[in-house]
Amino acid sequence: MNVPGHANMNPVKKGVLPHFREGKTRRLPDFLTVSQRRIRSFSDVTRYGYAVGMIRVLETQTLGSQHVERLVEAGYEEALHILEETPIGDYLRHARLAGEVDAGLNAFLRDSYDTLAKALPHDSFIMEFFRCRFDFHNLKALLKAERAGGEPEGLLEGLGTMDIEELRKGLESPLLLPWPYKETVEELAQGWGTPQELDTLIDRRYLEYRLFLAGREGSPFMVDFARASIDLANLKVLLRARILSKERDYLQALLARGGFVDVVTLVDIYGDASEAMVKKLEGINYFARLMEMAGDEEEVVRLTEFDRRSDDQLMEMVRGTKRISVGVEPIFAYLRSRENEVLMVRLILVAKLHQVPPEAIEKMLRKLYIE
Asked: Do the beta carbons of residue 328 and residue 217 sit within 8 Å?
């Protein structure tokens, strides 16, 4: 059954709401900016003191905007020489294929995690907040391979919190897995459709688990970041479901709970005609800023562009913590900037291996934490 009002209209196609192009929705909403009043000091002000001191040194070695500009304009070999000015260069010195670039960058990120983890309190949840996504990623790869009857592709060893073999055994006996992985496997054992649906179902569990970890850490900023991430992911799910003419029940099963925007609100909006749906989305705080990507007269929005803009919006939140000198925020910002750095270098180098011109690469880049 088609969704009402779907006929021949992509909900984010240019022309639906012309005022998006008049600059009325470009400001980050107040509730996603970081206020000093929201920062709560830990009873022990030295809890993250050692780790913060470490990252203040490491931050001086991160990739800056000048590095990125030079990388975009350089050839592949020259780009590797530029990266030797940063710690990443040691991991990519002999990389000549896309697979070798991936391996080098994954090793760099793993070592970055491991180095900082040693400086964190044993009861901190920050590292698990970042590393659990690789456990969920590996779970996706294993489940897809199990259905296809082949070997899993894209496994990321050493980046998550669990060994690959532990996850393999958990697929056979879910009781061996910790929460929420056990519940995720049990839910998927009831059946799943396309690989894309599997990805979305696991992403929902991942996003909700990160919100739980943020709450356990007791950081208002981490909670806000996790909730905003849920909202942005839910908006993407909604738009994709609308494009595919899916019914409400399908959408409701895939939406993550815990965001600033209630799931009931999104499901109700989904039933509206396309133009009405877009108007309501534009009225929901920061969703309006993402709907601006409908600004090209010729093109329907690509969801890859949505991902880039979502990442940029989350990076704006992280940038808002620069005034915070102690506590969770500097640690969080450093880890997020390292992940972003790895993403940027991978994108640039792989694009160069495929002879993508500099002007096309520039359009794919994310915002940096440190300009």
From this structure: yes
For residue 304, count CB atoms less than 10 angstroms from its CB and return exposed for 0-12, middle for 13-18, buried for 19 or more. exposed
Q: What is the pTM of this model?
A: 0.85
Closest CA to 331 of 161, 65, 166, 125: 125
Euclidean distance between CA atoms 312 and 33, whole angstroms: 14
Rounded to whole angstroms, how far apart are CA atoms 55 and 16? 46
Contacts of 371 (CB under 8 A, 6+ apart): 64, 65
Please provide the DSSP assignment of 301-344 as one string: PPHHHHHHHHHHHHHHHHHTTTT--SSHHHHHHHHHHHHHHHHH
Angle among Cα 26, 28, 29 to the nearest 5 degrees reads: 115
126-218: CATH superfamily: V-type ATP synthase subunit C domain (1.20.1690.10)
Structure tokens at 294: 């409908």
Backbone φ, ψ for residue 115 (5° rounding): -65, -45
Q: Where are the domains of the chain?
A: 1-34+221-320, 49-119+322-371, 126-218
Cβ neighbours, 10 Å, residue 23: 9
DSSP labels, 117-131: HTTS-TT--HHHHHH
Supply the angle between the helices 328-353 and 303-319 in degrees, to the nearest 10. Answer: 150
Helices (H), 94-244: 98-117, 126-148, 164-172, 181-189, 195-217, 220-243
Half-sphere exposure of 302 (CA within 13 A, CB side): 7
Of 66, 103, 102, nearest in space to 83 by CA: 66
Q: Which fold has domain 49-119+322-371?
A: Topoisomerase I; Chain A, domain 4 (1.10.132)
pLDDT in tens, 33-67: 555 545 545 444 578 999 999 999 998 888 888 99
pLDDT digits (tens, 9 = 90+) for 161-184: 999 999 999 999 999 999 999 999
